[in-house]
Amino acid sequence: MSQFLSSKRFPNFINHQNINSLLISTSYIRKVTNLQHIIYKQYATSAFKKPIYITTPIFYVNAIPHIGHLYSAVIADSLKRYYELKGHKVIFSTGTDEHGLKIKQSAEKSKMNPQEFCDQVSSKFKELFDIANISYTTFIRTTEQRHKDAVKYFWKCLMNNGFIYKGRYKGWYSVSDEAFYNTSHVQEIQNPDSKEKLMIATESGQSVEWTIEENYKFRLSEFQDKLKSWLEENPQVIMPINKFNEVKAWIDSGLSDLSISRPHSRLDWGVDVPEDSEQTVYVWLDALINYLTVTGFPWPHDDLNGWPVDIHVIGKDILKFHAVYWPAFLMAANLPLPQKILAHSHWTMEKQKMSKSRGNVVDPIKVMNDYGVDTIRYYLMRDGGIADDGDYSDENIKVRYRKDLAGQLGNLVSRSISPALNPSSIVPSAPKFLGEIAEKDANLYYKLQSLPDLVDKHFQNMEFGKGLSFIFDAIAEANKYFTDNEPWKLKNDKNQKEAVNNILFYSVETVRISGILLQPVMPTKMSELLDRLGIQKDQRTWEYARFGRGWDLNNNHNRKIKFHHDEKSVLFPKFKLTK
Questions:
Q1: How many Cβ atoms from other residues are within 10 Å of residue 520's Cβ?
Q2: What is the pTM of this model?
Q3: Using an 8 Å Cβ cutoff, are 408 and 172 in contact?
Q4: pLDDT above 90 as % of the chain
Q5: Could you report the per-residue pLDDT of 84-118, keeping only the tens digit for each?
Q6: Which regions span the lipid bilayer (predicted)?
Q7: Where are the alpha helices (DSSP H) in 199-270?
Q8: 485: phi > 0 → left, psi -120 to 50 → alpha, else beta; which?
Q9: Which of 43, 65, 94, 316 could staple 69 via S-S, CB 3.0–4.6 A?
């Protein structure tokens, strides 16, 4: 990819204290941006290995978090843990978007000043993510000074590269979406209750108002061909494919220049445009720059601290901002583009959009209290919509828990380490001749052999439900194998000792491999499971998710590794629902 970095070191005196002086130095900005021409692939040839950089969107704080916010966070967190399991260093950022007219209006309704309101709601997102075991490395807030500095610096880059001009906007604006819309993207409807006619945005269904104002514009139209080429050269940059096709259609239909500021008289809760205090930076440009802020932008030297983003995890409703506007902004600033954008679908209930007016909004903290954190994480990853919307149901959560977690995995754990069949609790030794697979063992053996690669393939393709289904197919096969071989009938026959050992080994080996592979999605429960199996902490990585790699089997007879039983603690107990 022809993406760009500086060929020389940025001066090492750049920091938050003296950035304001740099912001007013036009010649300096031009000098920096004109230097940015080294291909991004320098990372691949240098001794320094770029960390994986994964992001959620930063969440708008006009209201408390809902299940869709949790879904984005769980996807990103599962990906973060998946890459860590494979030995990568990972940067994982999330946070809150705290500027804009909608925030100011929400604060006024709550009789609070905007900053106090943002502090309160942002803390709710942190609380949710802490409860959900979201292991972010950075929680960014757009009201932080470091972010305001980054926004002003980025603006100056665009301005001095010639991509910003002052103009006059005449068209539609949605306060709810914080977005400008062309006439072709709005329609008139009639309110079914009041019979009043109103205009709405066809993409979001939110009301729009006719607006005439002077503001700054970004030359988006100049990037139409560049964006087309970007998509042609990177056919998997936007996933799933139906979202890629949407973006391609938007670009093919033509791009108009984009308003990227609003008059201060209409919007004063935001970042002032550098050298023009009468204008406020458009909230979406402000928000998107958070991904750079997290890496320490503007960088004090040519170490980009993990940039570019490897995976943006976003909801489908903000796809245009991330897959059209954001790449164009970065191109204009001569910065490397995101490697992948995953635009997941939404959650509905009974096939209807969740909304307060319908009374079908799901409280994510309550459902985690009811069903358990890892249960909800598993449900979201297994049944959540990527290409198409997922339909939320408490009953479906119970079915997944009863059939998959308790009925399959929990059952296999209990029977494979049962003291009734293995009174010593010593880990069974591997079959003596792994190269000669008995017919009765073959199905399970080959499923376990192929399992890590199948899971890896589907996680790489963002097909999380498919990857998880292969794990539970293997667990179901192991339960069938256990039942068919009836070890409880053989346990007292001395001549069948090796047969019983093999049955127990294959069963518990399925549990071990599955436990390692499920760690990204269910980190707490799988840690507990692997503890019970006596798996050392340094043997829980991806390389150990292979048949025969557990428990240091060559020395097993000498070490006598034992399972850890806790009869009082069931891995997946019955629900005790809160009211």
A1: 25
A2: 0.87
A3: no
A4: 68
A5: 999 999 999 999 999 998 899 999 999 999 999 99
A6: none
A7: 224-233, 241-252
A8: alpha
A9: 65
Angle, helices 523-532 vs 373-383, to 10°: value is 110
425 closest CA partner among 525, 565, 285, 544: 565
Name residue 512's beta-bridge partners: none
What pLDDT score was predicted for residue 436? 75
**Bridge partner residues of 390 (DSSP):** 347
Residue closest to 183 by CA, chosen among 192, 170, 193: 170
Neighbouring CB atoms inside 10 A of 454's CB total 18
What CA–CA distance (Å, rounded) separates 226 from 332?
11
Report residue 248 as tokens.
Answer: 């391609």
Q: Which helix (H) or strand (E) holds 513?
A: helix 497-517
Distance CA 279, CA 294 (A): 25
Delimit the domains of the chain by residue range: 30-156+282-366, 404-543
- Supply the angle between the helices 145-160 and 26-34 in degrees, to the nearest 10: 80
| Domain range 404-543, its CATH number among 3.40.1190.20, 3.40.50.300, 3.40.50.2000, 1.10.730.10 | 1.10.730.10
Mean pLDDT of 512-528: 98
Write out pLDDT tens, residues 461-513: 999 999 999 999 999 999 999 999 999 999 888 899 889 999 999 999 999 99
Instruction: Check if 30-156+282-366 and 404-543 are the same fold.
Output: no
Bridge partners (DSSP) listed for residue 173: 180, 209
Beta bridge partners of 92: 54
Q: Which residues contact 511 (CB under 8 A, 6 or more apart)?
A: 409, 412, 413, 416, 417, 475, 478, 529, 533
* Predicted confidence band of residue 567 (pLDDT cuts 50, 70, 90): low
Q: Which residue has the tokens 């066809």?
A: 202
Q: Which amino acid is at 212?
A: I
What pLDDT digit, counting tens, does each position of 17-53 carry?
333 334 334 333 333 333 333 333 444 444 458 999 9
Counting other chains too, the contacts that 248-257 makes at CB distance below 8 Å and 24 or more residues apart are: 250/320, 250/324, 251/224, 251/227, 251/324, 252/228, 254/221, 254/224, 255/220, 255/221, 255/223, 255/224, 255/227, 255/324, 255/328, 256/182, 256/220, 256/221, 257/167, 257/217, 257/218, 257/219, 257/220, 257/221
Three-state DSSP state, 217: strand
What does the DSSP 8-state code read for residue 10?
P
CA distance 497 to 16: 70
Backbone phi, psi, residue 4, to 5° = -125, 145
DSSP string, 451-497: HHHHHHHHHHTT-HHHHHHHHHHHHHHHHHHHHHH-HHHHTT-GGGH
